[in-house]
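Example S7 (structure tokens).
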């Protein structure tokens, strides 16, 4: 019989004397808990899925990552387009004298001719190169956005995975602590039968056991939410089999904050994207300066009249587009580019400060939760269990009241849950550090 089944075997002897209808209610609770116990047994029997496999699956199948990657691939095609000369234009001219019909009168008029020409626009030297460099920086910004999306999705998978591992562990806690609560109920029942206790203590013990059933139901609700989240990130069907997480590790963090900060400055996509945007705006300012200079157009044409009487004509034309409206076009364009450059510098500084803040916050979370876990393992958890055993012995010998015994049990229950919650918070903080720095901090880790 599983611990959770034993936990739900309600002793109805004292209750039938006061509230007969409560027996049926508690029996239904026992049946529900038995179903939970079967689900827990099936849960433990499933083969766990390594986190590395899920990360690889998310990187291949997540539609957000795929969309961001395709956006980057599209942006890489732009630089060559904007840095290439405009397409040339070919012209055919035919002039008649005395007739509107094409090619009429070619041989009977000295003024009739056929002309073939080509024209090409030439921007001022350096403009095309700057446009190509600007488009290249735009593509690099999109690349950093893609990397940011990729890291965010992978961090989300890790966070959901660690939440599932935490919930899986808390189910075992509820089962094992249910056995402790059964000891409390037995002690209260024994004292009540001996005449040294009162029925209120027994009823309160049964209330606490029913609260454990509520915790189990809430646990299953949270598991369902986490399963739905991680399936969404993996682009799996919501009706697909649930994911079974591995044991929640305690991953060491050998890096100092300065090392993590250095890696962040070099590899963080938000910072890199902001820096690329500053470079892009500098090039935009240079291009705005170039727009004060003229662009050119070159045309060349061959004209033929009667080849038996006249020689061919060759014409070369050069056109210049002069920027004469500088006060209304070029100067506002330059002012706009300079303002955008200053804005991009400020946004880059804001991004650097924001990322440094997040890095420090997650680093402190990882460091402090490691200290907390040690305090739990070496102090609070063994002390709470020892205190509970002492309290139940004192209660059985009528040297302590029931409220003190119940408080010691709740200490054990809450400290167990807080330990694994802190472990999940630490692993989630490490996942965010990996997202910010681009480093792989995941190791085997020490297990409790």
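Recovered sequence:
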């Amino acid at each position: 019989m599983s611990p959770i089944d034993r936990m739900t075997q309600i002793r109805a002897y004292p209750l039938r004397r006061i509230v007969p209808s409560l027996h049926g209610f508690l029996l239904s609770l026992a049946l529900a808990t038995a179903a939970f116990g079967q689900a827990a047994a099936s849960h433990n029997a499933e083969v766990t899925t390594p986190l590395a496999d899920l990360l690889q699956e998310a990187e291949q199948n997540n539609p957000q990552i795929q969309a961001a990657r395709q956006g980057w691939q599209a942006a890489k095609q732009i630089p060559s387009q904007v840095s290439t000369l405009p397409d040339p234009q070919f012209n055919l001219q035919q002039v008649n004298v005395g007739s509107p019909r094409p090619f009429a009168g070619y041989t009977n008029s000295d003024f009739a001719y056929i002309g073939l020409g080509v024209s090409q626009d030439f921007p001022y030297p350096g403009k095309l190169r700057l446009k190509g460099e600007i488009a290249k920086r735009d593509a690099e910004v999109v690349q950093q956005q893609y990397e940011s999306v990729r890291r965010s999705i992978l961090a989300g998978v890790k966070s959901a995975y660690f939440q599932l591992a935490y919930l899986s562990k808390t189910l075992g806690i509820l089962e094992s602590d249910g056995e402790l609560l059964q000891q409390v109920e037995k002690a209260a029942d024994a004292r009540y039968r001996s005449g040294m206790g009162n029925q209120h203590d027994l009823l309160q013990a049964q209330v606490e056991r029913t609260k454990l059933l509520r915790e189990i139901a809430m646990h299953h609700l949270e598991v369902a939410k986490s399963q739905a989240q991680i399936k969404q990130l993996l682009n799996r069907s919501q009706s697909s089999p649930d994911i079974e997480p591995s044991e929640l590790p305690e991953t060491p963090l050998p890096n100092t904050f300065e090392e993590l900060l250095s890696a962040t400055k070099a590899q963080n996509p938000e910072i890199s994207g902001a820096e690329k945007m500053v470079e892009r705006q500098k090039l935009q300012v240079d291009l705005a300066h170039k727009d004060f200079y003229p662009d050119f157009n070159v045309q060349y044409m061959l004209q033929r009249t009667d080849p038996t009487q006249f020689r061919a004509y060759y014409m070369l034309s050069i056109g210049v587009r002069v920027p004469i409206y500088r006060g209304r076009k070029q100067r506002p364009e330059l002012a706009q580019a300079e303002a955008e450059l200053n804005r991009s510098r400020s946004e880059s500084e804001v991004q650097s400060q924001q990322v440094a803040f997040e890095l420090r916050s997650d680093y402190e979370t990882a460091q402090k939760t490691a200290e907390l876990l040690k305090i739990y393992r070496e102090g609070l958890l063994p002390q709470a269990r020892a205190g509970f055993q002492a309290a139940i012995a004192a209660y059985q010998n009528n040297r302590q009241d029931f409220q003190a015994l119940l408080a010691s049990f709740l200490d054990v229950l809450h400290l167990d849950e807080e330990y694994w919650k802190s472990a999940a918070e630490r692993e989630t903080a490490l996942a965010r550090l990996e997202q910010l720095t681009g480093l792989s901090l995941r190791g085997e880790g020490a297990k409790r």
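Notes on this example. The beta strands are 89-95, 113-122, 295-304, 313-321.
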